[in-house]
Write a structure and sequence with these properties.
heterodimer; A: 464 residues; alpha+beta; 11 strands; B: 292 residues; 3% strand
């Protein structure tokens, strides 16, 4: 038979359990909108001995590590496409011939001006038109290169900023690891710190793909850039981006500097993923190659055009010289220009292929007109225009692929977030019901104590 | 399925953003009229549009060449018509002077008249186009093709220009084509004048035949020029057809179907309104309101 004390203990355990449930519901409601927060739940358990009442197991954070990891990876994939797009948006306009001002239009206009001279080689207006179109073409090459170069610079600046962010967050993860290790050793609750660390890992994952390895002491190790340690037992590595400049074809590479006091550096292997990976992919796969290819196109075009122009004859039957100059061989697209002599004298346009038939012979003008589209002067055997079209298509399809990729990953993230939220998120309605339930339990438990008290008084009165 | 509060706000935010994006894009297309605003919208389509632009520009260039050639042919035609008239007049004088009743006084007067015709013919043969180029000098377009004596000093080479894809036509005319080899017409007229001045009855008699040959030559050349002009008209017609075709094809890729796009705008607007209406219901329904 239960003693009065046992009944009071049972009532007390009910009160404490209800209080814990109410506290937990309040905690969940307060953190309903906290990023990375996993709702807390507790289990009520009947004590083995009848007289001990109820005990509360928990609180436990409701987590789904597998889905969280999957979601972090997807965040990284989504951010990768966002990074790609931010880089590609910078240079798309450089290859937009649809608005009538791109390099393709300038090439077409130049070709048309040459066709004009082929139609009327003795015409001064037609010769002047070729010079004007040639000047416009050089400006278009320079402007396109400038936009690409700005794309490289902007990508570099963004990549640097992101690398700094990742380094800072990795240090925070390392610091949290240390605190979690210490608290775990002391058997204290680490739920809040784990939430903070999970939110940081999620943020890092958006910037750079990371693999997480959980340790038995509660800490985690992070690896990035093809297995390079980002957060290790030693601490956090510093992430930086090396920009190789013109000598390295404007490519960039991620470097991890170990926090071991020796400054040991490891280059990332392959694509680092995340937004940083996306920006570097846009730069290394599209912007930088396009920049070097544009220089190559400018150089080969000038060489081919000058060779043909030199083979022709001017209005007065003199041998044609160079039509274009490249003043800085390291930057052909930026420094090509129509020669001063030709700019000053339209009669120097070498339209004729026979000095005895000037000025009406158009043999060389027809050959010059064919250079852009019909002469395979590029080292890979392509014509100039085909080469240019490929650059334009590469930029356009890369952007299109990044846009489609972003749409897919956004949808995937949304689905995964929904699935994870459904499991770990806070429902205020649900918590309100829990609170109501806890409130009722509290009142019932207090009633048990009141009744036990009353019974005790009755017994004491009988005895008294 | 558990529905957390964050799921509700994320859902409402995502749907609202998607609805607004659809409406924004539909309005953007409807107001610009362009289906492709940048190459990434449709890379293959963008290449086609720029290629059609180039083909249309090329056709414009063909048309300019056609107009240029046509202008030269018309002037050459007019010049040769006048030349045929002049040669006809000279021949009439030759027939008239080829008569025993004519005296040296008549022949001198006739020589003077034929001399006038010679000058008119010389002026015609050194005629220029609007831009100053000589009409009958072949590719030598910047010097007078005939000297004062009627000797040809122009080029015997012509220039071909493209007037359609792969179709070329002669854009210049040499003196030989206009007035015979080595200035045949001027030679005949000069000889006739000399015979008149010298009172060479046999020479005057020969002049009738020579001038008749020159007249035939001029008429044949006129027919040739007419045939070239007709050919130009046929090519121009084909080019016009192609220009229309390319413009239609370009528009097919580049331009939106406005009726369809207005429908899309209405649909997107209706969807967004529904999202806003229904989202507000979802947000407002809370146990908190009930418990209050």
């Amino acid at each position: 038979m239960a003693s009065m004390n046992e009944i009071l203990t049972i009532g007390n355990s009910g009160l404490l359990a209800s209080k814990s449930l109410l506290q937990m519901a309040g905690f969940n409601i307060a953190n309903a909108n906290t990023p990375g927060y996993a709702r807390r739940s507790a289990q009520l358990q009947a004590q083995a001995v009848l007289g001990m009442g109820v005990s509360v197991q928990g609180p436990h954070a409701v987590r789904n590590e597998l889905m969280s990891r999957h979601l972090n990876t997807t965040y990284g994939d989504k951010a990768f496409h966002e990074g790609q797009l931010s880089g590609l948006n910078l240079i798309q306009e450089a290859f937009n011939d649809l608005d009538g001002v791109g390099l393709g239009n300038a090439l077409n206009t130049f070709e048309d001006a040459l066709a004009g001279v082929a139609g009327n080689p003795a015409g001064n207006a037609e010769r002047q038109a070729v010079i004007n179109a040639g000047i416009a073409l050089t400006h278009s090459f320079a402007a396109t290169r400038q936009q690409l170069h700005q794309g490289v610079q902007s990508s570099s600046a963004q990549a640097d900023a992101m690398a700094t962010d990742v380094s800072s967050m990795a240090q925070q993860v390392a610091a949290l690891n240390a605190r979690i290790r210490a608290l775990t050793d002391n058997g204290k609750d680490i739920g809040g710190l784990v939430d903070q660390r999970a939110a940081l890992v999620s943020e890092i994952s958006a910037q750079m793909r990371v693999q997480t390895v959980h340790q038995t002491d509660g800490s985690i190790l992070l690896y990035a850039g093809g297995g390079r340690p980002l957060v290790s037992a030693e601490g956090a590595a510093r992430v930086s981006v090396n920009h190789l400049g013109p000598g390295g074809n404007y490519l960039s590479e991620v470097v991890f500097t170990k926090d071991n006091g020796q400054g040991e550096q490891l280059k990332a292997i392959g694509d680092v993923g995340g937004r940083l990976g996306g920006i570097l992919a846009a730069n290394n796969d599209v912007i930088a190659p396009t920049l070097t290819n544009l220089d190559s196109l400018a150089e080969e075009f000038v060489n081919a055009f000058n060779a043909q122009h030199s083979a022709g004859f001017t209005f007065n039957g003199a041998a044609g010289g160079n039509f274009f100059d490249i003043t800085d061989p390291a930057n052909p697209a930026a420094s090509m220009q129509v020669t001063t002599a030709v700019r000053q004298d339209p009669l120097l346009v070498a339209a004729s292929d026979n000095p005895a038939e000037v000025p009406g012979n158009n043999g060389n003008a027809l050959l010059l007109e064919d250079i852009i589209r019909d002469t395979p002067f590029m080292p890979n055997g392509q014509t100039g225009f085909a080469f240019y079209s490929d650059l334009m298509i590469e930029v356009a399809t890369s952007k299109q692929a990044a846009t489609v990729g972003l749409e897919i990953e956004t949808a995937t993230v949304s689905q995964l977030e929904t699935m994870l939220e459904s499991e770990v998120g806070v429902s205020v309605d649900e918590e309100l019901i829990r609170m109501t339930k806890a409130n009722q339990s509290f009142e019932a438990a207090s009633q048990v104590i009141r009744n036990a008290d009353q019974m005790s008084e009755t017994v004491l009165t009988l005895l008294g | 399925m558990r529905i957390s509060d964050k799921m509700i706000t994320s859902f409402v935010t995502a749907k609202n953003t998607a609805g607004k994006t659809s409406l924004f894009e539909a309005i953007g297309r409807a107001t610009s009229g362009q289906a492709i605003n940048e190459p990434a919208d449709n890379p293959a389509g963008a290449i086609r549009v720029t290629e059609y632009d180039r083909l249309i520009t090329k056709l414009d260039r063909y048309q300019a060449n056609l107009d240029n050639v046509d202008h030269g042919l018309r002037l050459a035609d007019e010049a040769l018509v006048k030349m045929v008239d002049i040669v006809g007049e000279a021949k009439a004088i030759a027939v008239q002077m080829n008569n025993d009743t004519m005296t040296q006084v008549d022949w001198d007067a006739a020589a003077q008249a034929v001399g006038g015709f010679f000058d008119q013919a010389l002026s015609l043969s050194n005629q220029r186009l609007q831009d100053g180029r000589y009409l009958f000098g072949g590719v030598d377009e910047d010097t007078p093709p005939y000297d004062a004596a009627g000797n040809y000093q122009g080029s015997l080479v012509n220039r071909d220009v493209e007037i359609a894809s792969g179709v070329e036509i002669r854009a210049t005319t040499t003196g030989a084509e206009g007035f015979g080899d080595a200035g045949q017409i001027f030679g005949v007229m000069s000889q006739f004048i000399a015979d008149l001045q010298a009172g060479n009855a046999a020479g005057i008699q020969n002049a009738v035949g020579d001038l008749n040959d020159a007249l035939d030559f001029g008429i044949v050349n006129l027919a040739r020029i007419g045939a070239r002009g007709q050919y130009l008209d046929e090519v121009a017609f084909t080019n016009d057809e192609l220009q229309l075709h390319f413009s239609v094809e370009k528009a097919r890729f580049e331009e939106v179907d406005l009726v369809q796009e207005y429908t899309n705008v209405s649909a997107a607007e209706t969807t967004l309104n529904s999202i806003v209406e229904l989202s507000s219901r979802l947000l407002q329904t809370s146990l908190l309101s009930f418990l209050r």
